[in-house]
Structure formats: structure tokens, C-alpha cells
């Protein structure tokens, strides 16, 4: 509202300036026929300057224009009251002026005009009554203005016009009723204006137009209806189409347009339909319009356009489709627009574009695609636009990854064509947020790779045992359980690839572990498929581990698969007895994993067989409620040697394992680097933890000091309360004098 008032004031000031500089005498010119009165004038003088036929009152303090005040100056041809303090014009105010052709009363406080105020002004051609406070027009007000050609009543407060008000204006060419408060008009109100060429009703409160309102206006060239609340246009609203050049329908509430509504307008040059609520267009909307050069459909709710809807507009040069809801566009939208030079698609919700979308636009030189949802574009998307010289791409959420590389190259090679006011910047990924695309390098435009497939996680219900192997070996773990529900077997076999020589003392170890009766919880088995490796072992060892759990009650089991390795902590006592030596040779093959699950009602047998290359740590984690096991290992050695020792081969431990490091053989530089990276991360996180602890201690110290300070201040202001009161009364006896005895 404030903006509208400000615009009105600016308009008045500009008009006043124009009036004073164009119509009133210019500096250095002899203007004998003009007489100008400024703000010092408080009344219209009876006698004006000799020979003056154009009179101007600018900001004068004239409250009333009385009847016949100018009758002694019949030579007047033009009179204007601009910004005066006039609030009333009496009937017959301009009588006695037979030759007057122009009257203007603008920017005053006039609220109404009486019938007869323009009586006998047969030669009046132009009447300007704009920017006043007129609220209604009475029938008969303009009856004597038979030769009037221009009537300007805009920027008032007109809410009603009586029927027949314009009936005698048969020669009227321009009628300006814009920026008033009209809510409705009738067909008969304008039915006698057969010469009318310019009809302006914009920025009123019209919600509909009556049928046949333009039927008796055959020579109309301009119809301005923008800025109303019109929601529907009748199919035959514009019967006289041949001479119409300008049609303004923007800023209304139109939700649809009738088929063939704009067919048969051969002279139309300007058509505006922006700022409505159109959701679609009919298949046939336009006819042959050889003169139309601009078309605006911006700020609607269009999601799709019919094929070839614009094809009749052969000479269309500028098309504005901005601020709509297109998610994609198609070459069918622009069929037949060979001469289009400017296409505006700003803020149209566009998510993707293809090279074929613009193949019809051979003459396009300016393309505006800013503020859409484009994240990437093909490198050849604009190859069908040979004349493209101005491209606007700013304010899109660009995803700067490897998919943007082709278009990135195009941008680098066509910097001179990109005219965006702000540079195109990355929205994704976060490490490139707000960075200019042009400033990036190809190495920065990368795509994140997915992790390789891994062996799934197997869950069962057995006690926990941790196996840690650091030599090339074949291990068999067999668990026999009296279970009522589930039997699970995981078997891994390996076949040979690259060669890693290792040497070990040949041994054969038989280990038997017996676990006490216990209530079991959930087993979590983790295994990771390692890349193919070939190992040559001079004297590998073969170890067989058999675990028997007796009198075991199992909870209902659950099996699932994952790829994670879980650090565990447990305590196991291991005792090894060495007695004999045997020699064996084992070839380590490449890994092949098989998972087999069998459900039986009685006995469950779980077998895990794994072959692992030298220096690879394999951890099998079994989680029980209680973990206590006594291991006895018997080893066969030569007869001459018998040794009893504790072996570190079977241990339980708590460890942190970086899962990324198991995706490649440990003997490669890549694996070493990954282990180093894991170590650096551990050091970094430990350092951050220490810093956080220090900061917490400092904060605690500060809080404690503040508390002590407050306590000290409170003691200083503590008052002593009286809790005990003691009262003593004393009586002293003395001898009575004789005089006192007499008195008594």
C-alpha cells in the first residue's frame, strides 16, 4: 500500500514537472500566449494577461473554482489546475469560454463534479481529471462534450458510474478509467463509444466482464484489463479482432483460457498473460499473428505445454515462461519458433535438460535458466543453439562431481557466453559448497565409489572363543551342540595365487577344549572375504580344534549376515603339552566362501573351516553369558625332546580393527598406507579426547572458583541473629533515715 502511494506521488511530481517544462514557457523563449500563477495566488484573477490563451495554476491556494470566473477571458484555449488546494468546482465554472480545447484538474482534493460544470464546451477535445478524489460520476456530466476525444479519469476513487454517463461522447478516442475502485461495469455503459480506440480499466476491482462489453467497440486498438480480479474470459469476449494491437490481461486470477481465444488477431503486437493462475493451456490457443513479437506467460502454475502451442506465432522474438512449475521441458514446447531470440525460463522448477530440447530454436541468442533445480547438464546440451551468446545459469544447486565434468569443460570453453550476474557455485558436495565451478579443477570433480562386496555376518547361539592366527594355516572348528532348533555351518576354502614364501617348523597340534555347562546367548561370527593371494609354505602347520559343549540349553536362535569385525575382551587359560614332531606341506589356495544353514529338531553341528594367508589376522567371536575355558594342547615332538610350555597361539583379546584395511592383502603398500591411516586416526581421536578432558577440567576449575567467590561474598553479608536473651533485675536495701520515717 505504501509503495502504491509512493508511486502515485512520484507520478504526480513527474507530471507536474513535465507540465511545467513542456506546456509552460521554456527559459529564453517568448511565451506571450501563456500565463502562469504559482503558490502565492489564492484566487483566480478576473482579468488575465493580454494575449494569453493558455493559463496555468501550479500549486496555487485556490480552494474553489467559482461559476463564470473566467468569462471575461473568452480567448482562453487551455487551462490547467495542477496540484492546487481546490476542493470544489461549481457548475458553470468554465462558461464563457467557447474556444477552449483543453481543461485539466489534477492532483487536487475535488471529490465530485456537478452536472453542468462543462456546459456549452462544444469545442473541448481533451479533459483530464486524474489524481483527484472523485468517487462517482453522474449521468449528464459530459452531455455537452460532443467533440471530446480524450477523457482521463484515472487515479481517482471512482466506485460507481451512472448509466448513460458516456452516451453523448460519440467522438471519444481514449477512455482512461484505471486505478479506481470499480467492482463491476455494464455492457450498455460503453455501448455508444463507437470511435473508441484506447480502453483502459486496469487496476480496479473487477471480478468479471459482462458478455458483449466490447461488441459495440469496433475500432479498439488497445484493451488494458490488467491488475483486476478477473477469473474467467468468455470465448467470444473480443469480437472485433482485426484492429486490436495491444491486449493486457496480466495480474488477474485466470485459471484457464478457452480454446481459440486468441485466434484471428492479425494486428496484435503485445499480449500479456503473466501473473495469473493458469495451470494448463488448450491445444489450440493462438492463431496466425504476424505482428506479435512478445509474449509473457510468466508467474503462472504451468507444468506442461501442448505440442506446437506457439507454432502460429511465426514472428515471435521474445517468450517469457519464467516462474512456472515445469520440471522438464521438451522440444515440442517450442515447435515453430524459428525466429525466437530471447527465452526466459528463470525460476521454472526445471530439473534436467537435453540437447534435443532446444533443437527448434535456431535463432535463439539469449537463454535464461537461473534459479531452477539443475544439478548437472550434458556437455552437448547447447550444441543445437548456434547463435547463443547470452546464457544465465546462476542460482542452481549444482552438484560438482564427476557427472558434471562434460559440462564443466563446456563452461571453461565458453566463458564469454555466460552472463550471469553472480557466478555459478557448487551446492554439493559439502566440501565444495559455494565454490565457483569455473575455479575448480578436474581432480576436484570426483564421484564416491561404493565398497566391494563382503562376507555377511552369521549369528548363532554358541559359547565365545577367539582364534588369532598369524601363520599360514588351515583351521577347522567343529562345534557339536544338543540344540532343538538351528544348525549353522560356514565353510571357507582357498586356492593359490601370488607367492609369499614362509618357513615354519613342521608341527601337528591337536587341541581339545571342553567348556562347562552354561546358559548361552547370541553368537556373532564375522568373516571378511580377502582378495586373491598365493602362498608357498615350506613347512606349514595343520591345526584341528574341536570344541564340545555338553548339557547345553540354547535360547531360540537368530541368523543374519554382516561385514563388521567386533572387538572383544575375554580371559582364557591355555596349557600346551609338546611330545612329538611330524612334517607336512600345505599349499594355501584362493578364498571361496560357502555358507550353509540347516534346521533340525534335535542335534546341531557347526563347522567352520578357514584357510588364511601368512600374517593375516582372523578373529572368530563367540559371545556367551559366562566365558571360562581350560585348554590343553598335546604336541607330538621327537622322542629325545619333551617340552612343556604355554603357547600364545590361542588367545583372547580386545582390539580395534579398521575394516577398510582388510579390503586388500596386508603385504601390499596400499594396505600399509591404510593401516597407517587407521593409526593416525587413533592418534587424532585420542588427542581430541585429551583436549576435551583438559577443557572440561579448566571449565570445572573456573566453575568451582566462581562458586567459592560467591560463597565468600555471601558470608560478608550474613547478619547475626539474636538467639538468646538474658535479663537481670537487682534490688538494693538501705537503712531508712529518721526524716523518711516521719514522713511515712
Automatic annotation (TrEMBL):
<dbReference type="InterPro" id="IPR032675">
    <property type="entry name" value="LRR_dom_sf"/>
</dbReference>
<keyword id="KW-0433">Leucine-rich repeat</keyword>
<dbReference type="InterPro" id="IPR000483">
    <property type="entry name" value="Cys-rich_flank_reg_C"/>
</dbReference>
<dbReference type="InterPro" id="IPR001611">
    <property type="entry name" value="Leu-rich_rpt"/>
</dbReference>
<dbReference type="InterPro" id="IPR003591">
    <property type="entry name" value="Leu-rich_rpt_typical-subtyp"/>
</dbReference>
<feature type="signal peptide">
    <location>
        <begin position="1"/>
        <end position="21"/>
    </location>
</feature>
<protein>
    <recommendedName>
        <fullName>LRRCT domain-containing protein</fullName>
    </recommendedName>
</protein>
<feature type="region of interest" description="Disordered">
    <location>
        <begin position="488"/>
        <end position="515"/>
    </location>
</feature>
<feature type="domain" description="LRRCT">
    <location>
        <begin position="396"/>
        <end position="448"/>
    </location>
</feature>
<dbReference type="Pfam" id="PF00560">
    <property type="entry name" value="LRR_1"/>
</dbReference>
<keyword id="KW-0677">Repeat</keyword>
<keyword id="KW-0732">Signal</keyword>
<dbReference type="Pfam" id="PF13855">
    <property type="entry name" value="LRR_8"/>
</dbReference>
<keyword id="KW-0325">Glycoprotein</keyword>
